[in-house]
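Weekly puzzle thread! Below is a chain. First person to post its structure in token form gets bragging rights.
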Amino acid sequence: MKYKLDLSEKLDVSSPPVTGAPDVGKPRPPTCVAWQPSTWPAVPAAVDRAFVENLKRIFEESILSEINNVISDANKTVGSLQHRGHVVAIALLCALDAISSYGYGARCGKQIPEFVLAHFPAAYHPHANSLLYLYRHAMVHSWNLFEVSITPGNEGIAASGGVISFGLLNFFQALVEATEDFLEKLTFDAALQQKTLARYDALKTSAKP
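Winning reply:
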């Protein structure tokens, strides 16, 4: 896998001037800060390796690594995601919405099933629509789940007695794998490239400095 995500904690190697004052008048090299869209590079004419690497960095640093840090902190503090589940679940479902919008359009989540079928592990495919309607919509708009469930562990997705359930850790790993698969396919899939460039351009253009 060429575009393997690195979710390790990133160290900030930048430092302010010793006096605490900015270097007035000195030109500053352009810096891309993944979570500040106004600093993202301009959209290229076509998808190239640099663009995919840049998108990978955005997904890593501003989305998936941040969620991974919350999961790690919870495990260090209480040993599990108990009493952290709602926050992590909502973050994961919003991350799925955001990442899938690049190759499949920003359609208020309606692009999620298409993304799941194209990139998620096969076990999630039968439940692609449920991830949108019973998970994403319920959690984001009503905070709780009413027809399905989530556990704090690494249980795989399964339906029992008509109720779908999966572990948050399993879903997080599935989302990571799906993102890697998306980035890989982005290097050669013309339809994905066109939609991803359009989405990136729209987001970059809307950003204020």
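Puzzle host: Confirmed. Bonus trivia for everyone else. The chain has one domain: 46-206.
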